[in-house]
Amino acid sequence: MNKLIDTLLKLGVIVVLIISATTKQQYSYYTFVRWVVLASSVYFVYKSYERKQMGLVIYFAITAILFNPFKPFWFQKETWHLIDYIIAIITLGTIYFDWKLNEQNTSNVKES
Predict the structure, then answer these.
(1) pLDDT tens digits for 82-110?
(2) How far apart are CA 12 and CA 25, in angstroms?
(3) What are phi and psi for residue 60, nearest 5 degrees?
(4) What angle is formed at CA 93 by the lines to CA 91 and CA 96, rounded to 5 degrees?
(5) Beta strand segments in the chain, E
(6) Residue 6 belongs to what domain range?
(7) What is the pLDDT of residue 10?
(8) Is the dihedral of CA 99, 58, 55, 48 positive or negative?
(9) In sequence order, which residues have a C-beta less than 8 Å from that of residue 68 and are 6 or more positions away?
(10) Dihedral sign, CA of 38, 5, 49, 108?
(11) pTM for this structure?
(12) CA end-to-end span of the chain, whole Å?
């Protein structure tokens, strides 16, 4: 059940980022994006740290810092669009990584 919740949360972040990059929104939406990405990234930093996946800890920590609403980074709109796409693609990759890791863990359990 935890894997399903993690996957749905990551998919939600991807959707929010793609909407942010492809459509023109009011400023409040971009603030919402910052909060969603920050909260989910902090959650995944914790989850990745528990699993001892230091690469993902670093990725999600950098993402949390980049999207933090407290002391925001200011980039050109095109730069933010590129960042949104990159974060969405990498996050999609983490979903794939989780599935592969889950398959390996279930096959190791069946063999034991």
Answers:
(1) 999 999 999 999 998 888 777 776 666 56
(2) 17
(3) -70, -30
(4) 120
(5) none
(6) 2-111
(7) 92
(8) negative
(9) 34, 38
(10) negative
(11) 0.84
(12) 23
| Domain count of the fold of the chain | 1
- The token duo for 109 is 């359990």
User: Which whole-number Å values give the CA distances from 14 to 7, 19, 33, 37, 79, in the listed order?
Assistant: 10, 9, 10, 9, 17
Q: What are the structure tokens assigned to 93, written together?
A: 């990759």
Closest by CA to 17, choosing from 76, 87, 101, is 87
Our CA angle for 22, 27, 32, nearest 5°, is 80
Length of the chain: 112
Q: Which amino acid is at 103?
A: E
Position of tokens 């910052």?
34
